[in-house]
Hints:
- By secondary structure, the protein is mostly helical.
- The protein has one domain (3-103): Serine Threonine Protein Phosphatase 5, Tetratricopeptide repeat, CATH 1.25.40.10.
- Helices cover 81% and strands 0% of the residues.
- It has 5 helices and no strands.
- It has helices at residues 3-18, 23-35, 39-52, 57-73, 77-103.
- The longest helix has 27 residues, at 77-103.
- The protein starts with a helix and ends in a 5-residue tail after the last helix.
Amino acid sequence: MRLKDLDEALKDxxxxxxxxxxxxxxxxxxxxxMAMNNYIDAINDFxxxxxxxxxxxxxxxxxxKCYRKLAETEQDPAKKADLIAKAKADEKIVKSLKKKxxxxxxxx
Length: 108
């Protein structure tokens, strides 16, 4: 997607959130931030979305991906380890949710 298109999409997502958008609005804006390589803002939006729906596999996967992307460029070993630990924590939750879903005990 071109930067101009992303900027327009970001404006739309911001408006949706201003109008009271919740889960999907935050996921959408997080995806836009992710496409812009703005992983910190993406993580913030995915975290907000997860507060509305903690069982969203896709959103947890997105947030884990952002943590890993930040870890790739982090120079401080402690911060890098923290980012990787956060990614692994989300990935563990995803694995558990997928297992529950497969067995028929999770949300669809």
